[in-house]
Amino acid sequence: MDHVGIVVEDLEAAVAFFIELGLELEGETTVEGEWVDQLVGLDGVRADMAFVRTPDGHGRVELSTFHTPVSTSSPPREPVNTPGIPRLAFLVDAVDDVVARLRPHGAELVGEVAQYENIYRYCYVRGPAGVIIGIAEELSSTAR
How much is the CA Rg of the chain, to the nearest whole Å? Predict the structure, then answer.
């Protein structure tokens, strides 16, 4: 897999959210023109994009804000069990610390922080554009 793409309303805020989560900004650009229109099946596309990557360099998230054409829909706020709702998950050193750091960036707990046996502490937060972000802390080195 190369990357996961998320369309957001506020690109700067979304980048800040993922940087606080521990990802690193890889680059930013603006795209427009016939090739983009062909790719996404819309006319007159102009979008700003940023790529953030995991510290190990193996995972990337593309964050995009479309200036044109204007979207006629709002971000999803569906429950976690809705088919098609995007959900990303990240391993972190301390779930509680990460959740506390993400709250000023708009993160909201979906449920509660839960513990699975002595293996994981895990929770879901709603991040940019309503995307559900799983945050997991390994409690045991034999968890995988």
Answer: 16
Within the chain, strands assigned E span 4-7, 24-32, 46-53, 60-68, 87-92, 108-109, 114-116, 120-126, 132-138
- The string of pLDDT tens digits covering residues 111-140 is 999 999 999 999 999 999 999 999 999 998
C-alpha to C-alpha distance for 25 and 124, rounded to whole angstroms: 23
Q: Say how many Å lie between the first and final Cα of the chain, rounded.
A: 20
Residue 90 has pLDDT above 80, yes or no: yes
- The DSSP element (H or E) to which 10 belongs, if any, is none
Q: Which of 122, 116, 120 is nearest to 99 (CA)?
A: 122
The pTM of the full predicted model, rounded to 2 decimals, is 0.90
Separation CA 46–CA 31 (nearest Å) = 6
